[in-house]
Recover the amino acids of this structure.
């Protein structure tokens, strides 16, 4: 994370993304095939599907999500400060909007 900017990436249900994503937190409703680096957390909503490699500090999945990936969870990245950030106002959060059907891309957001 650079200069106190929190990077969130949200991929909606119509997304079919192939490539690499780097962000503090990622929330997925659609599909990803590739590598995800979500330093503080990756959350799969119901209906989400991910294949590839996941590096994250925290992983959660709702009933109905699917994951066929190598999953590397580093519990040290989920500290008390991260938990406090999850509860705070998101007015200072930077969001990335990913167009649907975005092939062969790399997204970095910190």
């Amino acid at each position: 994370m650079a200069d106190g900017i929190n990077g969130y990436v949200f991929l909606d249900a119509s997304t079919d993304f192939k490539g690499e994503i780097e962000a503090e937190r990622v929330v997925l409703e659609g599909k990803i095939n590739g590598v995800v680096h979500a330093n503080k957390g990756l959350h799969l909503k119901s209906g989400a599907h991910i294949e590839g490699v996941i590096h994250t500090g925290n992983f959660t999945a709702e009933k109905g999500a699917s994951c066929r990936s190598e999953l590397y969870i580093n519990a040290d990245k989920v500290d008390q400060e991260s938990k406090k950030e999850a509860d705070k106002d998101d007015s200072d959060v930077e969001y990335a909007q990913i167009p649907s059907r975005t092939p062969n891309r790399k997204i970095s957001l910190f």
Notes: The chain has one helix and eight strands. The two ends are 5 Å apart (CA to CA).
